[in-house]
Amino acid sequence: MIKKFDKKDEESGSGSNPFQHLEKSAVLQEARIFNETPINPRRCLHILTKIIYLLNQGEHFGTTEATEAFFAMTRLFQSNDQTLRRMCYLTIKEMANISEDVIIVTSSLTKDMTGKEDVYRGPAIRALCRITDTTMLQAIERYMKQAIVDKVPSVSSSALVSSLHMVKMSYDVVKRWVNEAQEAASSDNVMVQYHALGLLYHLRKNDRLAVTKMLNKFTKSGLKSPFAHCMLIRIASKLLDETEGGHDSPLFDFIESCLRNKNEMVVYEAASAIVHMPNCTARELAPAVSVLQLFCSSPKAALRYAAVRTLNKVAMKHPSAVTACNLDLENLITDSNRSIATLAITTLLKTGSESSVDRLMKQISSFVSEISDEFKVVVVQAISALCQKYPRKHSVMMNFLSNMLRDDGGFDYKRAIVDCIISIIEENPESKETGLAHLCEFIEDCEHTVLATKILHLLGKEGPRTPQPSKYIRFIFNRVVLESEAVRAAAVSALAKFGAQNDDLLPSVLVLMQRCMMDSDDEVRDRATFYNNVLQQKQKALNAAYIFNGLSVSIPGLEKSLHQYTLDPSEKPFDIKSVPLATTPLTEHKTEMTPISSSKMPDKLTPSRQDIYQEQLAAIPEFQGLGPLFKSSEQVQLTEAETEYVVRSVKHTFARHMVFQFDCTNTLNDQLLQKVMVQMEPSESYEVIHYTPAANLAYSQPGSCYTLVRLPEDDPTAVSCTFSCTMKYLVRDCDPNTGEPDDDGYDDEYVLEDLEVTVADHIQKVLKPNFGAAWEEVGDEFEKEETFALASVRTLDEAVGNIISFLGMQPCERSDKVPENKNSHVLFLAGGFGGGHDVLVRARLALADGVTMQVTVRSSDETVVDIILASVG
Amino acid sequence: MDSTSPEPSLYTVKAVFILDNDGNRLLSKYYDPELYPSMKEQKIFESNIFNKTHKADNEIAFLEGMTIVYKSSIDLFFYVAGSAQENELMLMSVLNCLFESLSQILRKNVERRCLLDNMEGVLLVVDEIIDGGVILESDPQQVLQKVNYRADDNPLSEHSVAQVLQSAKEQIKWSILK
Predict the structure, then answer these.
(1) CB pairs under 8 A between A and B
(2) What percent of chain A has pLDDT over 70?
(3) ipTM higher than 0.90?
(4) Which residues have C-beta within 8 Å of that of residue A286, sequence separation ≥ 6?
(5) Taking a C-beta distance cutoff of 8 angstroms, is the pair A464, A458 a contact?
(6) Nearest CA in chain B to A160
């Protein structure tokens, strides 16, 4: 008794773990008693537990020792101790991958799974399926089928779940058990129902008709299991999503009816499904929102969390639908679970009025340090959205963000804050200085190279134009002294921009540059030397070309051209103008939030769309002599959406030719089209020189055919043309089911809509980060100016949009945004015309009765100026 | 925004783990082979989760892109993790079932020492609740019935006496049979 007391005393200390000092070798040594006769169930049980515990702790077992222990363990099947047997099953499952020849226990397990002891049967099935491979599966197929329809729920469930695991491995075998699974689905047991439904869906999910039938059956029969109900809701909403079924479909009615289910799990699943449906109207959302509102006051934290998280999602698209819950959300602000509180506040920030912003921000800043990074990102995103909505609040937000920036946090969190500050700076000119100051402070102590370079770039762009540029120099030069190569190089580039734009700073910048020329890194030295020389010339045009507006060519294109150049050496120097220009990425404003889960998106440099087209076209022999691809247009629809054939066209512009790519889809399942081509009749002096037909166009498999057209050589101003298009092809009727075509076919044709080539197809968008400098660089040699009246246009916004889309040029300096309540606006556009000529357009717009526009065009080539003005007129 | 609903599937649970109050692993099961495939990653993940959850008993959190429901008892922490789109209440029902079943098996002594002493029972309970990520059973009574395991509260000394007697009996039987 005293001994026992001692032991207890010792164990109550920190290390009271019976497994603490386990040695793998000692345990394996002990495992020898498995071979003793008679079997001692207690001790064997304890040793098995130790083995599993060690495996679970990450102890590595070699194949030989694992196999040895496994074989010793097989002897334990002789014992009839229930727990010991069950532990054997567990050991088999744990060791299935590390031991050899595990299939040796197949017969023992098969015996247990078909035996009389119900306690053994389920677990034995699961262990057996874990060690079975495709070839062995055939042998136990009969038993599995029986087990699926067994009366004992645990046996049936085990068989169903194991079958589901095996679908990945041997789909064809498991598919044959569909009838048994069907029978199991009508079982009285809730879990069997659930598992059977899951297996059935998994086997049939590629057959939409079968899924529909299955849904019909089960939604009517009314399953008892809440899990099965949730599964049905998910299947139904997926089917709705795929078929784009309207919300009057019976499936939607089913999901809505689940909102009245007795079980909270099902109600929540249904509400969540409705909320996640695309294009839900406010009326359809209302019942879902009201059940979520009820959940908000639940005593269960998980339910409150689930409800507020879903409401948060609703608020992104339909803030007004959530307004009704504002009162309930207010109560959650002080929830002890910070995740719930954060979600409640960010939801309120989306739905609330401008007046409540200050209060909410204060509330959230009181505990922002306690929440996880994931939620901090949510908060930042909410703030970012808020700044777009209430620009006047930017000072509050900026303060808050700068505080957050000082806190600890991971890369994603910091990046979200920096992006948010940058977007505020861009939206609100008056917040620029405070924002830049915060960012300067941040890079003083920033461990993320990507963010530091990004901020330095921004400083270089915005800093020189602030009233006091000199104060940023110190921050930037500190980077040169303290940071890694990439940051130093970025800092040098930023410094150069200050020197180029501010004459009074130039001498100091030159001194700093000379110091950077001593840097230990090649890139930094190269940049410093280059900028130093450029700056010393003190020429505006040079500055503009080499410091403000860098290369605007596409990088893969440049690589290819250089490679080509090295392949056939010539006397001529390499012409940078032959390189295709970079397509400016479409700058969509991300009003929609990225979900918190997808923050791990890979940031890869993907080749641009144009580079992909270039590859595709280069593969066709007829198009190889055309030179580099200059521009590819957006896709143009040449047919109505719901017709027999769907044809879309992409216009590819080359130096002297154009290639029209027609992506055709055949939507008739009883036809096979062959030799498909699109015949084009030009209205101007364009000349069709070649057709490349698509050989085969089977049902719903898109194919492409091409038409090559030569641009008129004698008249460079003929930039626009209209083509009438007809698709010609050979039809072969075929069997809709097998796709087997008839032997002979007949010619047919299909008239498409006209295709237009406009001036925009000849202009590539080029972003000039500093438009003023570029404007000076081109000079006024070929400047022309004209005034137009746009009578039909009512607002400045509309006018700006029309001009941009008509000319296909890149708006610079954010001049595509017309400030509110203004009567005049200046739009800056930049582009590259075929042949490597830069084109710059300045359009002064004035709103009176209609819009009056004064267009000034500058380019390095006179014809280009004429073309632009002629096309505008 | 993830407007596409998640693929309907029975694979609900991504991981289950039980930690002690120092954040040490007592038992962990990972059901998604793509999620933290190496032991090192798993342990880092567990300690991250532990650090963020052990102070406040909040029941639910969203960490490392996963919904995690948890519960503590004396010196133990129970965690169930699922994907971000998963129905939180389903995960909760798994956690509740796990906790209820264990508390029955351990006769309400849900604490570290008792759990370790009855490790085999704990392993069997987890095995009956989740199989490869699929919820096998969510009713604690059913789980207990299937596991059919009783915590052993015989003191060690008594037990060894009984054991000796038992083995003596067996040995005699054996020799007679021979």
Answers:
(1) 186
(2) 90
(3) no
(4) A321
(5) no
(6) B136
